[in-house]
Design brief:
Blueprint lengths: L2 H25 L12 E5 L10 H9 L3 E4 L8 H19 L3 E6 L1 H12 L4 E7 L19 H4 L6 H8 L7 E7 L19 E6 L13 H9 L1
Parallel strand pairs: 1-2, 1-3, 3-4, 4-5, 5-6
């Protein structure tokens, strides 16, 4: 895929996300039939004011026999504060089901998912990370929201947050997956989305999607496969 194709792909995915948000405003979120006895998957959205962009993943996972839960969070806050905000909700899911929860985070949400999995292995079975700047992204320098959103600076290469996160080896009781794309224009350089090599870590590099495309239907079969492993 050329740079032009990557830009077109990102623009197309952005259009689909905008359409999804408009539909959500006009029609509301589609009703999803969920069986609480199914394996729980906690979804964490990216750097957006809403979690609407996770709606279709939620629908797909429910159709595949999972119990997907996506809770909005204070996206402008420090990531450690967001983690403290979400962990009680995951703990509640764990207590309801009596089973460990899989966690799936997109972009910035992937960093949160990774940190939760490392800090709370008693609650988490698998951590699937989609297009997260695990080693930082230079695009964070260009984000105008960084002046009032602490979490953007935390996504800069060599930030204190990422330095601390990367110093912790992945907990051996959790399986970690990083799914990222060579055509991602938000995580630059692309290799910064990869996780350090460990026995329980799997990095999966795609070449047919953009950053926003990592939450598109092209990736859904892979997500189901990873969750069922």
């Amino acid at each position: 895929m050329t740079l032009l194709e990557a830009i077109v792909g990102e623009a197309s995915s952005l259009f689909q996300q905008i359409k999804m948000h408009v539909d959500h405003i006009l029609v509301g979120e589609p009703e999803i039939t969920i069986d609480d006895t199914n394996p729980a998957v906690f979804l964490i959205s990216g750097h957006f004011p809403t979690s609407v962009h996770m709606t279709q993943i939620k629908q797909f996972l429910a159709s595949q026999g999972f119990n997907p839960v996506c809770e909005p969070y204070s996206y402008w806050k420090d990531l450690d504060e967001v983690e403290a905000e979400l962990v009680p909700k995951i703990k509640q899911l764990y207590q309801q089901t009596g089973k460990k929860v899989s966690i799936l985070g997109y972009s910035k949400g992937g960093l949160i998912a990774r940190s939760i999995a490392q800090n709370h292995p008693d609650l988490i079975d698998k951590a699937i990370i989609l297009g997260a700047p695990n080693q930082g992204t230079i695009m964070a320098f260009l984000d105008p929201t960084r002046y009032f959103t602490p979490s953007v600076d935390q996504m800069l290469p060599h930030s204190d947050y990422l330095t601390e996160l990367n110093q912790k080896p992945p907990h051996p009781d959790v399986d970690f997956y990083s799914v990222y794309s060579i055509n991602d224009l938000m995580v630059l350089p692309n290799r910064n989305a990869a996780l350090p090599a460990y026995q329980n870590v799997r990095n999966i590099l795609l070449d047919n999607v953009s950053h926003l495309g990592l939450v598109s239907k092209k990736v859904y079969p892979l997500l189901a496969e990873l969750l069922k492993e």
